[in-house]
Amino acid sequence: MNVIDKLNNSYRENRIYYFMVLIFFCVGIALGAFMVKYMNINDSTDLSNYFSSFTESILVSQVESTKLFLNILIKISITVVIIIILGFTVFGIPFILLIDLIKGFTLGYTFTFLLTTFNGKGIWLAIVSILPQNIFYIPSFIALSIISIEFSATKLRYKFFNKGTINTIVKKELIFKIGVLVCIFITGVFIESYICPNLMKFIVSKIT
Question: Is there a smaller number of Cβ atoms within 10 Å at the N or the C end of the chain?
Answer without folding.
Answer: N
